[in-house]
Prior knowledge:
The chain has 434 residues and is of the alpha+beta class. Helices cover 20% and strands 31% of the residues. The chain has six helices and 22 strands. The strands form four sheets. Strands 1, 2, 3, 4, 5, 6, 8, 9, 10, 11, 12, 13 and 15 form a 13-stranded mixed beta sheet that branches.
Amino acid sequence: MKKQNLKKVLSSVLIILLTGITFSCQDTTMEEQETAVVAKEQQNSTKKFVASAVSDLARRWAPIHYRDVDATGTYSEGGKSDYITAINYDNDWNAENNWNNLPAYANSLAAHCYYSIVESKTHWFITYAFFSPRDWTDNPFLYSLDQHENDLEGVLMIIEKDGSSYGALKGAVTVSHSDFFSYVPTSSSFVSGLESIDGTLQMRDFNGELHPVTAQDAKGHSLKAWPQHDIDGDGIIYYPSANGVAEIPADNYDNHVEYKLVDIFESGGLWDQRFNTELFSSPAGGFKGNDFKTGGANAPWAWDDGNDAIVQGGEFATDPAKLADNYFDAVGNFSRTYVDNKYNASAGGIVTVYQNCNYTGYAIALAAGNYTLNQLKSYGIVNDDLSSVRLENGYKITMYQNDNFGGESVVITGNNSCLGNFNDKASSVKISAL
C-alpha cells in the first residue's frame, strides 16, 4: 500500500512538474511573439515616419506654379493642352497614346507633380517635375519640327540642412527644354559659379510658409522662375496640396488649383516604370512618342543641358550635388557624399577637388582610390590645374607632381582652400582613409 501510494505521489509530482514546464515554455513563446510583434510595429512605425517625413519635406519646398494657357490653335484643345496632369492620366503607362487621348480626358486633367529627394550629408536635393501630354505650337510650319508627344519639365531645389526640420532653401535650377537656368532667393549666400545666376527666386506665403514661385509658358512649357515666365491673359496658378488632393481646374483662369505630389520612387512609380517599353525607349529615360516628332521628352534622370562641359546628361537628378557645386560658388559646408541616392548609389565621393582657390571653378568628387593623369582626365580634371580640396573626416589625399605618383608630393588631411606651393601642380593623386 505504502509503495503503491508512493508511486502515485511520484507520478502526480512528475505530471505537475511537466505541466509547469509546458506552461513556462508557452509563456516564453508568447513573450517572444509579443516582443516580435512590438518590434515589427515599431519598425513599421519608423518606415511610416520616414515616408511621412519625406513627403512633408517635398511639400514644404514644393513651388507655387504659374502655367500660362493658350486656348487658340489647332492642337490647343481649348487650353487643355497646357494643363499639368499625371503621366498616366488616361489610366495607362503608354506614352504613345497620350497625345491622341487628350480630347477624351480633357475635363478630368487632375493636377500632379512628380518629385524625388536625394540626400547628402549636408543637403537635400528635391527635383519637381510637371507633365503635359502635348508639347505643341500654333504655327503650322513648325508642326513637324517643334511639336512632340509628352512633355516633362522641372526644377531642382537645393536645401541646406541647418538643424531645422526642413532646412533652408539656397538655390534652384530649372529645366527649359535643353537649357538649365539657375536662381537664388534673396536670403541665399550662393553666387555664380561655372554658370551665371539667371535671376532671383521669388518666395510667396502659402499656408503660413514661404514657397518658391516657378512658371511655365504656354505650348512649349519652358520652366523658369516667376516672373521670367508669367501668365499672359488666361492661365492657371497651381499650389501644392497638403492632403494629397489632385484638383481639376474649373477653367483656363483658375487661380487656385492644388496639385498632388507623387514620389518618383514609390512602388510602381515613374522610376520603376523605366523598364516599361511602352513608356520609355530605354531605361535611360527618353519618353516614347509617335505624334509629329519621335520622342522629345525626357525623365529627370535624362535631363540634359547640352552645353555643360562638366555636368553630364541626367546628373541634374542622379548627381545633384555635382550640379549645385559647379553651378554655384560660396556654397559653404558642402558634402558630395550621399546618404540616400536611389538614382545612383555610386555617385559622389569623399574628396572634392576644385580648379581654383576658395572652392571655385570646376568641382569633381572622387571616391577612395589611386588616380593617374589619364584617370583624372576622364573625370574632366586638367593636368596641373587643381587649387583647393574638400575632404570628408577620416580621409586624406596625397597629390603628386608627376603622373603615376612620382615627383614631389603633399598630403592633405582636411579642407584646404588654396594649395599654396602645390597650387596647379597635381598630375596624379591617391585617396585613402587616415
